[in-house]
Amino acid sequence: MHNFGLGQRGHVLLIAGDAATRRRSVQVAPSANLAALGMVEAPVLLNSDVPCDTTYLDGARDPNTVLTRLRTAAATPGPLMVYLSGRLTVDRRGGRLHLALAGTTAGSVRYTALPWGWLGTELRGRPAGLTTVLLDLAADKAAWPLLQEYGSLPATPAVEVYGVVAPPGWSGSGNVVSCYTRAWIDQLRASPTRPSNLQLHALAAGAAALPPGCIVLPSALELGTTGPAPFPGAPFGRSGPDEGRPLHTVVTPASTPGQGWAGAWQAMPQGQHALVRGPHPSELLPVEAAVRLPADGLPVDAQPQLSDRALQHKASPAQDPRPHIHGLATSGRHLEAAALAQAWEQHVLQTCGTTSLEAIGWVEIRADLARMAGDFELATQLWTRAATTRMTRQAADAPAVHAAAAGALYCWTQLKDRNAALGTGPDLVRLLRSLPSLDARHLQLTQQRLQFLHREPSHH
Fold it and tell me: 15: which strand partners?
């Protein structure tokens, strides 16, 4: 824990906005999240042993009430954590982001919701390194297009922002603690020493069952590489000029897939791991292989045609997160490696689509990380999923499909737990049956093992 000196006080401000719902199912239950966080000691949340105050705001209906509490918290001289949970929405007239409060409706946003810009205004003057904002939010249908345009959630450089924003189509998990907040609390309790906020975020994002397309903050790009933060100097509101827009990474598939898990870590050809900038994403003009892409730059199925200049320019190793992730795994830091890989997968899912070859590549990386960690059940599931998804984009006899199927089969043979083998075996058999050029002995041996496991008495 940090000691910021005598005479300083810290502050924890927990704000519950309006619940996010979809067709009567609860996506985010802010009150449940606040109750769970309230069970964690404030010094642990702050990562500081200075005296601190805690303020709970649950059920507030007046944005000025929230502003007063926020202003008081921002004036504290010591460390500050602000937690916000609820629903992001947009006012119809101004088109600006708001945090919906209790009783906010589509027509009353301007009067009953907290403008997102107020948060940045109050926190902008805080000393660097003393302020953390933790978010567990869901966006409604009005706010989601704006977030897609940003590619992130606007932030001010004076604040460290961590959290997730779920998309509007997600059905949710009910009136319980959200998976991200629960994972954050679990990691705090499980760690013998208090991890940094960045480590907590990476571990929580990796452990939580986040919905597809969920926005993860910081983005995978910021987790895996160094570089300027999105929206430099911008308040919590509309983004500034184009050069202030968030970075996206476009990872195009390697032209010659490798075999098995070796292919998952195959180095990108020159120029094929670059950051690109619109409005013409098909013309890559690398500046040290790193330029910017507006959030709406590439359609799901786009495969950029590399210019001669791009092909001649070798991509900077710092832009490819895979060596770093692989290094974490080989040094035994499996949880961190898995968390970073899952964050990158979420980023690519948003950018390229769920069935894109880029997204499949990250499923395969996660599969190999699970194998390296000894989690053969998860590895089998991921390799099977990768091979099955590949067949929606590639021929069943494609080398990459066979390589993924081989990975699934190998990991399944390493399963010692009977229930795990029985649970993953049927999907594997269906996959092997769909491969016309597969050696028939592989399918036969898999079916025989499954039959034996079904006959074998359970020891539980």
Answer: 57, 84
How distant, in Å, are the alpha carbons of 18, 164, 280, 407 from that of 343? 27, 11, 27, 22
How is residue 141 written in tokens? 């249908």
From CA 403, how far away is CA 395, in angstroms rounded? 13
Q: How many whole angstroms separate alpha carbon 23 and alpha carbon 169?
A: 10
CA atoms within 13 A on the CB side of 219: 26
Per-residue confidence of the chain (460 residues) as pLDDT tens digits?
655 554 588 999 999 998 888 777 787 888 998 999 888 888 899 988 888 889 999 888 999 999 999 999 999 989 999 999 999 999 988 889 999 998 899 889 999 999 998 998 899 889 888 999 999 999 999 988 888 776 666 667 778 899 999 888 777 667 788 899 998 998 888 877 888 888 888 888 877 878 877 888 875 445 443 332 322 222 233 223 222 323 222 222 222 233 345 556 653 333 333 222 222 222 222 222 222 222 322 222 322 232 332 223 333 333 577 888 888 888 888 888 888 888 888 878 877 888 888 889 999 999 999 999 999 999 999 999 999 999 999 999 888 898 899 899 989 988 888 899 999 999 999 999 999 888 888 888 888 888 888 886 665 4
pTM, to two decimals: 0.53
Q: What is the DSSP string of 329-370?
A: HHTT-HHHHHHHHHHHHHHHHHHH-TTSHHHHHHHHHHHHHH
Q: At what angle do helices 357-372 and 322-330 cross, to 10 degrees?
A: 10
Exposure class string for 297-307: b at 16+ Cβ within 10 A, else e: bbeeeeebebe
Which two three-digit tokens encode residue 16?
């519950």
Residue 345: phi and psi, rounded to 5, are -60, -45
